[in-house]
Amino acid sequence: MNRLPSIAGRLAWTLLGSALLWSAAVSGAVWLAVRHEVGELLDDTLQGAAEAMRPSLAGEGLPPSAAASAAMRGGPVPSDRYAWQVVAHNPHGAAQVLARSTRAPASPLQATPSAGFAQTGQWRVFGTALGHDGRMLYVAQSRAEQLEAALEIGFSAALATLAIALLSHLWMRSRAVHELAPLQRLSQRLQQHDLLAPGATLGPAERSELQPVHTAIDALAAQLAQRLAQERTFSAHAAHSLRTPLAGIDAQLAVALREAPPDLQPRLQRVRSAAGRLQRVVAALLALFRSGAQIQRTPVDVATLLARLPVPDLTVNVQGAAQVQADADLLSAALLNLLDNAVRHGAHTLVLHSPSPQTLWLHDDGPGVDEARRLVLQAAIDNGQQEGHTGLGLLLAGLVARAHSGTLRLPAVAAGFAVELNLGPAA
Predict the structure, then answer these.
(1) Which of 21, 195, 205, 218 has the fewest beta carbons closer than 10 A?
(2) 53 by DSSP, 3-state: which?
């Protein structure tokens, strides 16, 4: 939902590309048609220029040499776009250029008398006879001039296409943004909407076509809330049901340890340690799935909290003042399971300190894990796919971190195993 502006931009650019393609196709067709018409217009201009120049060059009865001289003195108006020649064709000899414009070639444009239009090398030529004495007037335009005219037309068509496409892009972008605005507002509503709150609903949609989306989100939220409530209820009941028998088992094992012969006491002690770990897991489940999903942040002194969480066979050293704002029950569950996790993996000493506000660093002296395993564990925690990848201690600590809008990191250390528990922003 937060990417709606970029979606509108991509949609506008897609529409712009389509508009450019269609405009280019239309412009190409127009250019071909106009080019043909321009060719005819240029031919008409050549013919018109020849007819306009013919009376002056014919001299209206003057001898050929005199007519040519009059033409050279300014009979026809010179042009930098056209060239002309007066050529005398002798049936028994070569053609001779009697007069020509400055742009015209020195050699005859036509070796033989040729009236009408013709293409001679780089020239488009129109010829007409000057009387009956074998003289011909040739008015020509170079192919470069014709190509220049065609390119000017093409350039004008391209500019028009670009202008239309840009205007279309701006219009379509504004329309796309306008049409996607209800989705953007729905995104903002969803960011502030608690889907799992009792009776939560998005209400009527701003646009009728968005009503099915509202209905689907409300239905999904109801299903999630119902399933979450069922899981919380089951977990809470299960934990409560297990806590009392476990406490009784621990009491009976304590009595048995006192009365058992020395050779049985190590076994009974291991059983009691396992029962103690199970009790801590149950306590963590009670903290995580107790009634009321919202965490209750209070100032917590970590050293005082750890003093109430004895873990046999592990020495915990708290360095400096470690104080955070967190839910005390959830933090107790997370720390208890992380400490128990360290013991089960062979650690004897653990150092805890707070490198920054709302962050706890736990570093034990156990065997740790190699780099590849550490990356696998971190990826599983980041992706929320912890089942089958992480132990129960890391799983519960990750859940507590996310409940506080924080993160659980596994930093690389030279020896042992380290955990960085971030508890999110303070209230």
Answers:
(1) 21
(2) helix
Tens digits of residue pLDDT in 217-267: 888 878 877 777 777 677 667 666 777 787 788 888 888 888 888 888 888
Q: Give the pLDDT of residue 409.
A: 92
Whichever domain contains 277, its CATH number is: 1.10.287
Residue 296 to residue 314: CA distance in whole angstroms: 29
Q: What is the distance, to the nearest Å, from the Cα of residue 19 to the centroid of all Cα atoms in its chain?
A: 22
Q: Phi and psi (nearest 5°) for 350?
A: -135, 135
Contact at 8 Å (CB) between 341 and 394?
Answer: yes
Placement of tokens 């915990």 in the chain: 316
Residue 26 sits in the same domain as residue 115: yes
Burial-class residue 108 by CB neighbours within 10 Å (0-12, 13-18, 19+).
Answer: buried
Q: Which among 4-8, 34-38, 311-315, 342-346 has the top mean pLDDT?
A: 342-346
Question: Any idea what the CATH number is for the domain that residue 353 is in?
Answer: 3.30.565.10
DSSP structure string for 260-290: S-TTTHHHHHHHHHHHHHHHHHHHHHHHHSS
**What predicted TM-score, i.e. pTM, was given to this entire model?**
0.45
Q: Could you tell me if 131 and 207 lie in one domain?
A: no
Q: What is the total count of domains within the chain?
A: 3
Is the residue at 173 inside a domain?
Answer: no
For residue 76, what pLDDT is reported? 47
* Of 405, 399, 404, residue with least CA distance to 231: 399
Which tops the pLDDT comparison, 319 or 245?
A: 319
pLDDT of residue 417: 93
Q: Which domain holds residue 226?
A: 194-291
Give the helix, strand, coil percentages of the chain, each rounded to 5: 55, 15, 30
Last residue of a domain, one of 223, 258, 291: 291
Residue 362 and residue 311: Cα distance in Å, rounded?
15
| DSSP code, position 418 | E
- Cβ contact 397:360 at 8 Å: no
In whole angstroms, what is the distance from residue 194 CA to residue 302 CA? 31
CATH number of the domain residue 82 falls in: 3.30.450
Select from 291, 324, 346 the last residue of a domain.
Answer: 291
